[in-house]
Fold:
Amino acid sequence: MASDAGTVNILRGVSLDVAAGEIAAVVGPSGAGKSSLMMIVGALERATSGRVEVAGRDLGPLDDDARARLRRDNVGIVFQGFHLIPTMTALENVALPLEFAGRADAFDTARTALERVGLGPRLGHYPAQLSGGEQQRVAVARAFVGRPKLLLADEPTGNLDGATGKQVMDLLFDLARAEGATLILITHDMALAGRCDRIVHVADGLVVSDERPQALAAQ
Amino acid sequence: MNLALRLARREMRSGLGGFRLFIACLAVGVGAIAAILSFSRAVEEGVRADSREILGGDVSISVLYREATPDQMAFLNRQGTLTRWVDSRAMAHPVKEGGHPTLVQLKAVEGAYPLYGKMELRGGGSLAEALAKRDGVWGAVVEEAALKRMNIALGDLVKVGEATVQVRALIAREPDSGLNAFASLGPRLMMSFDALEESALVQPGSLLSWQYRLRLPPGASDTAAVEAIREHYPREGWRVQSLADAGGGIRFWLDRLTQFLGLIGLSSLLVGGVGVGNSVSSFLATRQRTIATMKCLGAPERLIFTTYLLQLGALALLGIAIGVAVGVALPFVAQTAIADLLPVRARIALYLRPILVAAGFGVLVALLFALVPLMQARVVPAATLMRGAVVPQRTRWWRWQRLGWRDAAVLAVVAMALAAFTVFTAVERRIGAWFVLGSVAAFLAFPALAQGVMLAAARAGKPRFAALRLALANLHRPGAPTPVVMLSLGLGLTVLVATALIQGNLRDQITSRIPKDAPAFFFVDIQSNQIDAFEKAIAAVPGADALDKVPSLRGRIVKIGGTPVGEMIVPSNARWAIDGDRGVTYASTPPEGAQIVAGQWWPPDYRGPQLVSFDEGLAEAFHIGVGDTITVNVLGRDVDARIASLRRIVWQTLALNFVFVFSPGTLDKAPHTYLATVKATPAAEDEIFKVITDRFPNVTVVRIRDAIQTASDVLGNIELATRAIGLLSILAGVLVLAGAMLATQRRRVHEAVVMKVLGATRARIAGIFAWEFAALGLATALAAIGVGTLAAWLVVRRLMHLEWTFLPGVAIAVALGAMALTLAFGLAGTLAALRQRPLALLRNE
Structure:
C-alpha cells in the first residue's frame, strides 16, 4: 500500500480460497493485516500485486465504479464501528443499497429486513437513538438486505457487550446460513471463530495456518 | 479571572487555524463599515474645510429668473465685497464648419470671481486673462467635454446667444462647481458677465439663475449678515445661505449615500455574524470533551464560560482590528480613483469616530452571535465523557431553547444595545429603526422558511428517482445544513436582491417610465416675437409633430388663503413650491392629458375674475382647495386668484406642465417667453436640432434622450458604489456558506464512503449531492427573492413614494447565482469526499 512514509507491504503473499456458502473466520494479532485483507476482498482497496476474485469476477481490471456495482450486487459488509449514516433513520440506512440498485421495493424490503433482525418497532429511529446492539443489528440488516453472495464482518461485536455480541453473532450466522451466503468473519474472539467452518490465522501479512474446527474437534 | 486568562492562553496554543472564518467574517463587515464611514467623513471634512470656496463666498444669495435691482445691489454692496454671476443652460454654437451646437451650463462671471479659492485652468494662466476681450472678442473657458461635444479646438470661436466668444482654456478645477454636480445637463462654459450682456440671453422671464456672493469684512458674522439680508428683503423669494449651508446639496447626497451604503455594510456584518456563531459552535463542539474533563476536575460553569469568552474576545478583537485597518486604509488607496467623481476635495485622514463606530458594531455583533454557543457550552454535562462519541452535535446557535431566562435576558440586552447603536448612529433614525426591524424580521424569516423547506422536503413523498429522493431527504435530516445555508447565503442574497430592485426601480423611473410618445425635445426661452417663425420651422421638418407650446412667466407664491407664506408652516416636501419663483402659465383650455380631480375648468371664452388651476398634491400640503384664494407675485405685481380646479400632474409623462395655470385675461398682457415641446421620429431629431440651433441661437434645446442619459450616468456611479458594497454582503455570505459546508464536510465524507461501501458509484454520489445543493440553492434563492422583494417594495413604495415594478431579471440572476454558489461549494466538498479512500475511515478504532 502506498503511504506518505513509502510503500508498506501489509499483506505479503496471501493465498486464500473461500468457497460459496462457507463460513470462515480470519484471526490474528493486531496489525497482522486482517482488516486490509477484508478491504481487498470487499473491493474497497486494491492489491498492489496478485489476483483477487470475488463471486467469480477478477477485481483487478475493475475501476472504482465497477467495484462499487460489484459490492452493490454481491457483497455485504458489517463493521465494528457500525458505520450507519447518523442523519438517516434505521429504515433509510437499510434501504440505501437497494436504492442504489434502483429497486422500487427498497423500503418494503428494508422494512422486512429490519423486522427480521427484531427492529420492527425502531424503523424511524436515528442511529443516535439506538443502543449499540440495535445499531449493529441495523448494520447487519443493511448488509443482508441485498441478498449478497459474500458477507464480510470486521470485528462485528468489538463494540458490544458479551450478551449483545452473542445475539448479533447468532443473527449473523443464522442469516448467512439461511441465505446460503459466504461469510468471512474477522475476529479476535477464538470462541466465536470456533463456531465457523474454518479458521484462517494471519500474522505479519501471511496466512500462517488454515484449519477446520470440526476437523480439529474430530481429532 | 486570572485562572480563566491562563486557561484561555493555553487553549489558544492550538493556533488560529479554526478561527480564520470567524476572523474573516468580522473583518469583512467591520472593514466595510469603517471604509464607508471614513470616506464619508473625509468628504464631509472637505466640505467643511472648503466651505467658503464651495459656497463661493461667506454669504450666498440665489434668485431664479430675477436680477437684483440697483437698490438691492447697493444694499448688498454695503455688506462686503460683492460679486455676481448668472448660471443657465444655453446653446453654444461653434462658428467653424463641422462644429456641433451643444447644450452647455453657462456661467457668466464678474472680475471678482471667485471670492475664495482659485479657478484653475489647465496649463496655468488666470481666469481674468482668459475671459478678457482681445481684439474685440470675449474669451471663454470650458470643461474638456465641451470641446469634444462641439467638435472644436482651443482658439475656436463659439456663439452663445448673440455674443461670439473664443474658447481659450480648459477648466482644471472650478472651486464652487460642487453646486452643480448633480444638476447640470451639459459641460461648463464660463465667460464674462459683460459678454453675457452682449449675448441678449438676458430677457424678461428667461430661465436664468442669478447668483450673488459676499465676502464679509474680517470678523463679521456670516449668520448675522444672512439674518440682516433676510430681514431687509423678506418677500423677494431669495435663497440666502451662510457658510453652514455650504455644500448643502453635496451633504444631502452624501448623507443619504452614506446611510444607504452604511446599512448595506452593516448587513454584511450581520451576515458575518451568522458565520461567527457557526464558527464558535463548531469550535466549542470540538471542545466538548475538554469542557467535560474540566468539569470532572471541578471547574465551575462560570470559569468555563469566562475562559472561552476571553479567548473568543481576543480573536474577535483581532478580526475587528483587521477590519478597521483595512477599512481606514481603503479610502487612501481609492483616493485617486474616486477624486474625479467627487465635486469636492475629500480630506482623507484617520478619523476616530468612524473607527469607533465600526469597532462598536463589530464588538456588539461578535458578542451577540457568540453568546448563545458560549452559553450552551457552559452547560455541557461532565457525563459527556462517559458516553460514546457518536452522538451527533445537533444543537445550533439558534436553537436556544435550552437557555435559561437569565441567559435570554443577557441576549436581549446585547441585541437591544446593537439595535440602539444602529438607530443612534444612523443619519436618519427613522431609517435606522426600519433597518433594525427589517433585520429582525429577516433573522426570524429565514430560519422559519428553512423549517418550511425542511417540512416540505419531508412531505414531498418519495420520488421514484433515487438520487432526488436521497437529496430531498438530505435537506430535512437532523443536522442538515439547510437552516444555516439558507440563513447565511439567504441574508446576503436578500441584501443583493433588495438593492438591485431598488436601484432597478430608480433607473426605471428615469428610463423605462418615460412614455413611448414622450417629446423628443424641450425648447426653453423662445421669445414672443420668435414663436410663429419657430412653429413654422418645426412644421417644415418631416417626421416632426406639431409644436406644443405654452407661454411661460415666473411667479412667486406670496399668500395662501390670505396668509403670507412666511407665516405658514409648510411641510418639507412642498417647500420647493414657495422657495423662490416658479413657472406659471395661462390657458383657455386644459393642458393635454390633464386630470382634473376637483372643481371645473373655466369656459374657453372666460374673461372674469382671475381663476387658477392648481396642483392637487401641493393643495393638500397647503391645506387649501377649490374656492380658496392664492396670491402670486408676477413681475412685481400681486395677482389674487381663486382656485377653480385641482389637477393631478404626472410629471413623468414629460409633457409640459405647470403647477399654476391661470385663466387668460391678465397675464397674457405681461411680457413672456414660450416653452415648447415637440414629438418627433428618431430620424427627424437631428434635423430639428440643426434647424433650431441654426436659426434660433438664443433658444435652449434640451434633447430628452441626452437628459435621460445624464441622469442615468449619475445614477450609474451611485449604483457602482452600492453594488461594490452589496457584493461585500455576498462575500460575507459566501464565507459563512463555506464555513457551513466545511462544518458538514466530515459527515459528508463519511456518508460518501459508506455509500461507496454499499455500492454507489461516484457519479451516483455526486448526483445525490448535486441535487441536494441545487435544491438548497434554489430554495435559498426563492426565499431571498421573496424577502428582498418585500424589503425593496417597502423602500420604494413607502419610503421613496415611487411606482413599483418587479424586475424578473434580477430574480432569475439571483436564483441562478445562488444555485451556482451552493453547487460550487457543495460539489467542491463532495469531490474531496469522493477522493477519500475508505480504509482510514472504516478501520476499527
Remarks:
- Chain A touches chain B through 44 residues (CB under 8 Å).
